[in-house]
Amino acid sequence: MSSHPPYDEMYDAEGHIRAHYAPFAAWMDDTQDARIAQKRRQAEISFHRVGITFAVYGEESGGERLIPFDIAPRIIPAGEWKVLEAGLIQRVRALNMFLHDIYHGRRILEFGVIPESLVLRNSQYRPQMQGIDLPNEVYAHIAGIDIVRAGQGEYYVLEDNLRVPSGVSYMLENRKMMMRLFPELFATQSVAPVEHYPALLLETLQSVGPEGLDEPVVAVLTPGSFNSAYFEHAFLAQQMGVELVEGQDLFVRDDTVYMRTTRGPRRVHVIYRRIDDDFLDPQVFRPDSVLGVPGLFSAVAAGRVTLANSFGTGVADDKSIYPYVPEMIRFYLSEDPILLNVPTYRLRHDDDRKYVLDHLEELVVKEAQGAGGYGMLIGPTASKAEIETFRQQILAEPERYIAQPTLSLSTCPTFVDSGVAPRHVDLRPYVLSGSETMVVPGGLTRVALREGSLVVNSSQGGGTKDTWVLEG
Fold first, then answer.
1. What sign has the CA pseudo-torsion 396, 398, 400, 406?
2. Pfam families recorded for this chain (predicted)?
């Protein structure tokens, strides 16, 4: 997969500008460098003013920093987006059906499509959810699916984020910034809007409220202002026009959740939680958690409140389950997967493990339950010592790891100190599931700003771009 030069989003193999980038290329030719530099500075100042920062753990420099924003958009033509959208909806529908199944009839395990131990012994599997019915049978109401392009431009799903996917506030703020700085660019072509995402999110959340209420009360549950994504929690609550609450602002009485307000208790029907399962209810999970709400689980079990995303969704986005998603799609939907997985070696299998141990310097090895670009080995850039350490870890606990080829991620023109240069990108579209499943056109494009780097995570020095889906 990595034998070709990376797929270039803007230029074809002969160096010609792809049609969907032509208006942007013409604008770049007509715009003076000084004006672009000035606009880049303006963008940086605005982001500082809005306070969009990202807490970086383990850094001495005070912990908070701005995620760099690049003003060259990532542009996706209408035809390509149509396929991506269909593939994303298909995938998330199958993942929700899988979650409902493993907490109910477990047909997929009975048929041996997925090894039982991978699910039932998974640290994210919540036996307490067994037999609990959820509105519309939806577990992951908000999914962030990471997509990469490799080879000759084929799209692959790199991973599924179904617990508390973040980053959507950057998608919205990046668009706002581009429209403010470069209105003339939007006049040259028809870019699908994204600013209705908060309205769609609210609609999705209200569609899964209990008891068929007309306007269920929704609240966003945050662990608090020290959290790395707190800006986003506050931003989304404000954009949806709902309350932002912490665990201590809620209490449960008679399996019903209430919010403390200055006018007395107010019932809450839907909670968009941004706290991990373990910390949500000290009566059921971690007794030492001060972030959650005692009794929340029993309120969910009684159908008196809907939690988005639900308890127990993490088992479906675990990297050890990821290789089986194409089989899930076939099993539940009787359809072929529209979007491909990255070829994946399952190290619990002897043949796969032998191959990986012989080719560690060529592969990416990931911890099945790791996240954020940590706990992984990127073979081609790793030292001999790092490779040796991973070899020993794999030999000791092979089932904890998966391995994949090193993908040569596609590149996108990006403003760097020396001018404009190609940098590797990925894409995280956001899929909303309530009474129906929808995707906002585009998503968050993350860009690896260091030359040659393939790590796009903001926690490891990546930046973001506006993603334009052209309307057909």
1. positive
2. CP_ATPgrasp_2
